[in-house]
């Protein structure tokens, strides 16, 4: 039987060393603060957003432009190496004429040599109502031919400070000739 006093002493020692470590981490440029100073006393809430993402490559005003062409030396069926910079409109409904709620700004890059997988790195910059000026940041893998693609929400700003969650993307419409596409996004996000 292990001695219960041993555990007590051990726990106390652990507590003490954590304390000392924390003490050491405090410095002129960083220290612990009260959560309530940032309004984090409120309960975290879960929000759901649904909008449509328009990747427009054709026409005179494309919102998605190739900034790095695919590496031609390798198997090109997956466009491995391609990087597109985007400033894609986000609308309430699937039609471009539908209400604009924000822009998806960032880039996507073809990251697979065997299938069409994109690395998505983008900010949803909202411009509507109380979310105007707030952003949600997505970084994830997008296998574009899958019915549903899940990508992590890795953070946010404004109303989305400390955000975490995920986004589900479903292709609504695609023109294989031009590459133009409309994708439905459902975003589930925990924030304060
Ligand atoms: C590229 O790779 C895919 C999957 O591995 C293969 O099916 C295809 O034939 C390859 N294409 C070329 C041009 O090498
Ligand atoms: C969003 O905020 C910007 C800058 O504060 C402002 O110019 C714009 O009119 C706002 N848009 C809406 C739809 O409230």
From TrEMBL:
Any one GO CC term of this protein is: apoplast
A Pfam family the protein falls into: Dirigent
User: Is Signal one of the keywords UniProt gives this record?
Assistant: yes
Key words, A-Z: Apoplast, Secreted, Signal
Q: PANTHER family from the xrefs?
A: NUCLEOPORIN-RELATED (PTHR21495)
Q: Which family does it belong to?
A: Belongs to the plant dirigent protein family.
- What the protein does? Dirigent proteins impart stereoselectivity on the phenoxy radical-coupling reaction, yielding optically active lignans from two molecules of coniferyl alcohol in the biosynthesis of lignans, flavonolignans, and alkaloids and thus plays a central role in plant secondary metabolism.
Oligomeric state and partners? Homodimer.
Protein's name in the database: Dirigent protein
**What high-level taxonomic lineage is stated for the organism?**
Eukaryota, Viridiplantae, Streptophyta, Embryophyta, Tracheophyta
């Amino acid at each position: 039987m292990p001695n219960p006093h041993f555990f007590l002493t051990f726990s106390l020692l652990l507590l003490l060393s954590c304390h000392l470590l924390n003490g050491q981490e405090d410095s002129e440029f960083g220290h612990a603060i009260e959560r309530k100073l940032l309004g984090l006393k409120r309960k975290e809430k879960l929000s759901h957003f649904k909008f449509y993402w328009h990747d427009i490559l054709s026409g005179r005003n494309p919102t998605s432009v190739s900034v790095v062409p695919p590496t031609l030396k390798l198997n090109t069926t997956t466009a491995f190496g391609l990087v597109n910079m985007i400033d894609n409109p986000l609308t309430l409904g699937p039609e471009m004429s539908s209400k604009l709620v924000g822009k998806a700004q960032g880039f996507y890059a073809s990251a697979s040599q065997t299938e069409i997988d994109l690395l998505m790195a983008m900010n949803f910059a909202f411009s509507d109502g109380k979310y105007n000026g707030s952003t949600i940041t997505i970084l994830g893998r997008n296998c574009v031919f899958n019915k549903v693609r899940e990508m992590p929400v890795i953070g946010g700003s404004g109303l989305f400070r400390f955000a975490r969650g995920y986004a589900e993307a479903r292709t609504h419409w695609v023109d294989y000739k031009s590459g133009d596409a409309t994708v439905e996004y459902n975003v589930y996000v925990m924030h304060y």
